[in-house]
Write a structure and sequence with these properties.
The chain has about 260 residues and is α/β, with parallel strands linked by helices. The protein has helices at about 15-30, 40-50, 60-65, 80-90, 105-120, 130-140, 170-175, 180-195, 210, and strands at about 5-10, 30-40, 55, 70-75, 95, 120-125, 150-160, 200-205, 235-245, 250-255. The strands form two sheets. Strands 3-2-1-4-5-6 form a six-stranded parallel β-sheet, with helices on both faces. It is globular and about 50 Å long. It binds nicotinamide-adenine-dinucleotide (NAD). Nicotinamide-adenine-dinucleotide (NAD) binds near residues 11, 98 and 127.
Length: about 260
């Protein structure tokens, strides 16, 4: 089997902590070759390219035209997922796109339709599904070993962990806050474990404490100027989803979970 030719769009945190090390491991096993990396910040692309011994690009169009990857990872913020995915699919690539998949439902729907039209795979990075414990639980639930699941409780977030990267503070690039950028994993995992039943009703409350109670930043105080974060970026959310078949899911999302230890 020939190694799969892959390219990475966006050389930020998740590219360097997740996708690129994984592609390196796959390359060492003879499964993939990294043909290029791209970032709108040229120094970032160059530094990453040096580290992974590949070519650096500033433009996605140039990278795809020159390297003809079979698969691209899209590791940019959600505001660019839609147009980058459509471009890559139309160029014949399979796409692995970071979550949240898009800024809204209609963008996500168009991405799925474009993948179907192009006959290419579009996958979203919901890696919690691949954890050993998730697979174990999935199999036990599917086999009926645990009986019907009547309720799922999910929590996602971090202790005093409001992101400091500025693009996470802008609605125009991030979309929303902790629910979209973290707890979406927990919600996806819960739905997947349950076999994707239809939701019947959903209610939720979101708010941003940062603006009104900067002290909620705890030991991270001074890392973020509260007035610089768009009000749409929630740092707390609580929700309740009622599914067909009677199962309920409670969702709690918190980027500013207090800790008893403050030092
Ligand atoms: N799956 C996970 O567990 C996980 C973990 C962390 C982040 N993420 C997701 O990954 C995405 C990126 O997060 P991050 O923390 O890596 O952000 P980041 O800001 O560190 O990295 C994004 C990079 O993309 C580059 N970029 C932006 N637009 C571009 C374009 N059009 N072409 C090429 N490069 C472009 C930026 O310059 C930046 O270097 C977010 O949607 C986030 O929610 C997922």
């Amino acid at each position: 089997m020939q190694p799969t030719q892959v390219a990475v769009i966006g050389c930020g945190r998740i590219a360097n902590e997740g996708h690129l090390p994984a592609y390196r491991t796959a390359a060492e096993a003879g499964l993939s070759i990294l043909v290029g990396v791209c970032d709108v910040i040229p120094e970032r692309a160059q530094q990453t390219a040096r580290q992974y011994d590949t070519k650096a690009f500033e433009s996605v169009e140039d990278m795809i035209a020159e390297t003809r990857p079979e698969v691209v990872s899209i590791t940019t913020m959600p505001s660019s997922h839609h147009h980058l995915t459509l471009h890559a699919l139309n160029a014949g690539c399979h796409v692995l796109c970071e979550k949240p998949v898009a800024m809204d439902f209609s963008e996500a729907e168009e991405m799925v339709q474009a993948a179907e039209r192009a006959g290419r795979l579009l996958s979203v990075c919901f890696e919690y599904r691949y954890w050993d414990e998730s697979v174990y639980l999935y199999n036990r639930i599917a086999a009926g070993d645990l009986g019907p699941v009547h309720a799922v409780r999910t929590w996602g977030g971090s202790v005093y962990g409001f992101p400091t990267i500025a693009s996470f503070h802008r609605q125009a690039s991030a979309g929303r806050g902790v629910l979209d950028h973290w707890t979406i994993h927990n919600l996806d995992l819960a739905l997947w474990l349950l076999g994707n039943p239809e939701p019947l009703t959903a209610s939720a409350f979101c708010h941003q404490r940062l603006a009104r109670y900067p002290a909620a930043l705890g030991p991270s105080l001074n890392t973020i100027k509260p007035g610089t974060v768009d009000p749409e970026i929630e740092d707390f959310a609580m929700g309740f989803v009622r599914m067909e078949g009677g199962t309920v899911i409670s969702v709690e999302a918190n980027w500013l979970q207090p800790s008893v230890r403050t030092s």
